[in-house]
Structure of Cellobiose phosphorylase protein:
Amino acid sequence: MNKCKFKEKNETFTLDNAKDTSYLYFPITNGFKLKSSVNSQLNGDLKLDQNQFAMVPVSQEDLQNNLFGRHFWMNINGFGLYNASGVSAVQKVRQDDDVSVEAGFLYHKTTRTNDELRLSIELTTFSPYGHDNVELTKVTIQNSSEKPLTFTPTVAIPLYSRSADNLRDHRHVTALLNRAKVVQNGIINQPSLSFDERGHQVNHTRYGVFATTDTQEAAKAYYPKLQEFVGEGGSLDWPKSLLESPDTTYQVGDDMDGFEVNGGIGFAETTLAPQETKSYVMSIVVSEDEPIDEMANQYTVDMFDQKFDEMRAYWSEKMSSLSIQTGDSQFDQYVKWVSLQPILRRIFGCSFLPHHDYGRGGRGWRDLWQDCLALLLTEPEDVEYLLYNNYLGVKIDGTNATIIGSEPGEFVADRNNIPRVWMDHGAWPWNTTKLYLERSGNYDFLFRTQGYFKDKHVHFTRTEDETYDESQGTLQKDKDGNVYEGTILEHILLQNLVQYYNVGEHNNMRLEGADWNDGLDMAKDKGESVTFTAFYAMNLMQISEVLTHLKEQGLSSIEVLEEMRVLLTNDISFDDIEGKHETLNKYFNLITSTVSGKKATIKLDELISTLKNMSEAIRDHLRNKEWLKVNDNTAFYNGYYDNKGNKLEGVINDHVRMTLTGQVFPLMSDIATSEQTKDIIASSKELLYDQKVGGYRLNNNYNEVKLDMGRLFGFAFGHKENGAMFSHMAMMFANALYQQGETKEATSILEEIYEHCMDFDTSKIYPGIPEYIDPDGRGMYHYLTGSASWFILNVVNEMFGVKGHYGKLHLKPSLLKHQFNADGKASISTLYRERKVTITYTNVKQLSHDDYQIKSVLFNNEEVPFEHVDNGVIIDPSHLNDDYTDIEVILDEV
């Protein structure tokens, strides 16, 4: 049995028998541009972006079948070729290596032992934190026998050195651009051009492989030409050049042009005495500006250990911003690894790991805001800057830019010229901004001004602005040619108001190109998203509540773009679908090309009333029209309408159809009544719950390829969006249940996913939360998933109840009895208003959740006053110290 387990309290994990599990990989990054992956066979790839891959791009299948990895060959006297990475023809057949893995923040160590050879090898891979784009692997070889061990070592790492697009498109032609050079202890390749048939450009990026030894010896042999290294009839897992002769004719200073490049570096024969060790460091370097050999030469074996310690210290401090202590120490450490995932997605985007073999890098609009949820809890010092810059992606028609750049606030027009709108995109900015406002109390943020994104696609991409050309840039202009800016509040109002009018024939908001579920992409004409209609209703109500708070602080009016008056009219009834369309089209026609730039003053009383009325009308509509009573035991909300205008859910062809998404947002938005909540829980358990996949499926099996709904129904059931246990929505389901006071049900969702993921024999992933669980129980699309942000949000905001209330500290724990340790304590160390706090809940009577309440609160052992609100307490943040505050919360009987 394989077992992935945490070491006691040091946040590293180990895995025995690692070679017996396929598809495992671990992310490596320098914290900036370098992005790589590695497994126990040192396979994976390394890149800076879509167009700068140092190693051949890999998908999940390539992890087992691709030979273009990191190789460290040993030609052992009396045995023959042996690869420290395990990738050799002989080792694959014999399978007599024992392989174990250890990993921490952010390194990966493989230990490979061979009893016949009495050989032990450690391979430790990491990237030094900083702007040097270098990945290092130290290979430490120990002779565990009682006899001398003699071998000749050779590093061999094929250098791909080009765009991922060329993996199939012009693979050989782009090799003709290669310009390789042998340097001391290294091979450098700087292709002459960056190949692009739309316009070739001079290439300035240099790629290199280097190797050093702990005795600082010079390399003896170089193998820069891949085909010569492999040899005629050979392969990368059995290179004939190493069998025939350890010598080559290449010397330092030699060039090799127009062929596939191999980072092949051989050292002289060495002999290890019994129990003696020897270390080598092999590095992969990408340089865009500085001399590559100067960068690489600093990473000696001695420097490896120093840089390794510095890297671990950085990430340890980084990850210290959130930690918990409950009655389950394994869960506590698991939360640490989940909290790393939003940071990884900020660096990797939604691509660039083996499962994420789609896209060209960067993140989508939704991802920007989802990731900020967790960053608010772990990296709050940067969040205001990120949020502010993200709002620059909003368009004046209420949609947003579709292509996100690598820098905050960088948006570009759709590069594929494919007009598309995801109707949920306008919902997320407020959801994230609300969390920021609650925790920071910085309501001035709403009145900062920001520009709008502009391209030729307008009116929800239904038409084009014929006056637009790319030379005018991507910022919205007014009629005088000036860049127009509006407040952040204006951006928020615009995104939510526009959606209110953009309804289908059943008076729910149009699905457009898709919503959160990208697979619902074939119902653009008549499709409606009931579920996100509920989300927008929640937003409208919450915005009105914040405006009410600002009114109480003395604000009486706000300014918005003059044209937005059209969207704030009160004389259209909710049921007047045609009137809604006329209103929306009137607004669209006013802002097709430019805007007036004029501001209208809106009284706060009137705006609050308008938003509340809109929200309440949607609530009543959904309760009356979209609640489905299937039978006495089954009832739930319909979530969608298909492209024929038919309900997606309910009893169809004598078969009950249900989606999880359709339930989450009516719950989260308080549209579902308490009785409906109970029915939803019961129906979800009946139709969607599956213990084999760790929880609730996204939908049950429709047994139909619904071309009138979306591509997801073409996927096999149980995979990805079609009925998998999709972690993101499961986490939002848990959050919605917490909101409804269903604490036990919510907690069970978190704990079941945790238990499933940590059951390595089933999940077959390193610790963390994957995007989804496949029908066999395997975790898929690991690391880069928005579910990690919602998992952390649930732990901090709900389980430990560390919330914000208009800038004040709001403590409302939902800890269950078993989550306290034997002493009746459960604690969380986190950041609140950018200050470190440790909050310890003391439950000495071991009371259940329904039986305790907060009796007293102590800041650094001194009791502080509080106000009871909503089953929790609110505390003035002035009691917090600037550096650190230890908070004890005493729980006692209700």
